[in-house]
Amino acid sequence: MLHKSLKELPKDFLWGASTSAYQVEGASLEDGKGPSCQDVKEVPEGTSDLKVCADEYHHYKEDIALFAEMGLKTYRFSISWSRILPEGTGAVNPQGIAYYNHLIDECVKYHIEPLVTMFHFDMPAALDQRGSWSNPESVEWFLNFAKVMFANFGDRVKYWLTINEQNMLTLVGPVIGTLMIPAGTKNVLKETYQQNHHMLVAQAKAMVLCHQMLPQAKIGPAPNISLVYPASCRPEDILASQNFNAIRNWLYLDMAVYGRYNNLVWAYLEEHDAAPDFAPGDAEALASAHPDFLGCNYYSTATVGAWKEEADQGKADQAVLPGAEGLFASVKNPYLPRTEFDWEIDPVGFRNTMREIYSRYHLPIIITENGLGAYDTLGEDGRIHDQYRINYLRQHIEQLRLAVSDGVEMMGYCPWSAIDLISTHEGMKKRYGFVYVDRDEFDLGTMKRYRKDSFYWYKQVIASNGDDLDDLK
Ligand code: BG6
Fold first, then answer.
1. Fewest 10 Å CB contacts: which of 327, 348, 410, 419?
2. Which long-range contacts (CB under 8 A, 24 or more apart) does 128-131 make?
3. Which atom of ligand 1 lies nearest, measured to the CA of 319?
């Protein structure tokens, strides 16, 4: 669709940036924090552990001041479950509450709206030992954690996100270090989708609780949504793309919005004796929850063709998922360039994805992640010339403006990441931030913060409410 002129973004558009607790905070066992699954996992060879990260725990004042200087209207961060409840349930850690109170107060001081993710890949290790999300009690564990957060921070936090990328937890949990399947499990697919079911019920109950405890607040899910393209117009390839769209995307949004399982996914699970068991009341709980908006992480699209035995099973992560027997085979999209870390770059796919989401669900969308992981270097001039990141973000914001002109209701855009942090499985060297942190993979350096070129550019974008996307003068 061609537009003669572009629609303006709303005046209260939430320009922001994102991080997550376990990737940015550090202080992994400090001030009463219990270990999470991320603190006890074996990190991939050649990558940093998650003990110090960007040390935001000790630098939050400086960091929030930088975010304010950039003009952020919102800061998306997550709350570490085991910093608040070291054992996952039971005693609350007052120092954990104090830390997030300080962080939120600092945001409020600069008129930055806190956008809080309740769970971002960091199950308390103590709960993993009790069966993690396989344990039906996990629904109540999460609800209790939600209640503590709403009670302590709900007076200042208006926007909440439930579970970050539940679809990636389910599809590639082991890569991220999260999926804990009890030893001896026979039907791993069933166990995985039983965990997924518990998360879906936990999310639904948390949304209802949020609306009860905080009537002014707004809450939504935060899956990673990538439209899945068919490799060709061959009808079998179309079926394959429908299969993967259902498993990767619509399962999560259909459930969050309509409170029911996607029919293709359900048929697939039944076929493999993997349909999750419902506890009494689950169906009602799922149907009773209504998100106020949809948070979506977007990095790229995916492309699939009909399943074939010799399909490339290659490496898997959030952007590159292997095929699934009988359903689809992943293929490389020959039209798309790739990042230094081999993720496809598809700005037009960003518009495609937003259009599709909005036409299916008709809820406002906030992009909770989008960004470019790259090997940034601190130059001798003390600057980081990340023009490649500016180019990437510009192309995506252009498409966001086009999507808005297509009639998609967008409420905000939060690139990943506000500041450099540790990647899920590719270490510190894969940087995403607007702010450079002076540390390497293993050498903790000075931890000094540097504004990258993208920092100044994004500041200009925000100041013009998305009109001025030109290079820096
Ligand atoms: C998303 C996650 O999958 O992508 C983030 O929500 C993650 O936690 C981001 O860091 C980028 O992925 P990666 O693997 O490059 O860190």
1. 348
2. 128/37, 128/40, 128/180, 130/88, 131/180, 131/182
3. 3
Q: pLDDT, tens digit, for every residue of 225-249?
A: 999 999 999 999 999 999 999 999 9
Our answer to whether residue 165 is catalytic in this structure is yes
CATH dotted code for 14-463 = 3.20.20.80
Say whether pLDDT at 357 is over 80: yes
3 CA to centre of ligand 1 in angstroms: 33
> Is 369 a known active-site residue?
yes
Q: Give alpha helix (H) positions in 74-165.
A: 81-84, 94-109, 125-128, 138-153
Q: Delimit the domains of the chain by residue range.
A: 14-463
pLDDT band at 319, cuts 50/70/90? confident
Which residue among 25, 56, 113, 165 is the active-site one? Answer: 165
What atom of ligand 1 comes closest to residue 371's alpha carbon? 11
* Residue 459 amino acid letter: K
CA dihedral of 87, 92, 93, 99, whole degrees rounded to 10: 120
Residue 103's identity, in one-letter code, is L
Average pLDDT over residues 179-192: 90
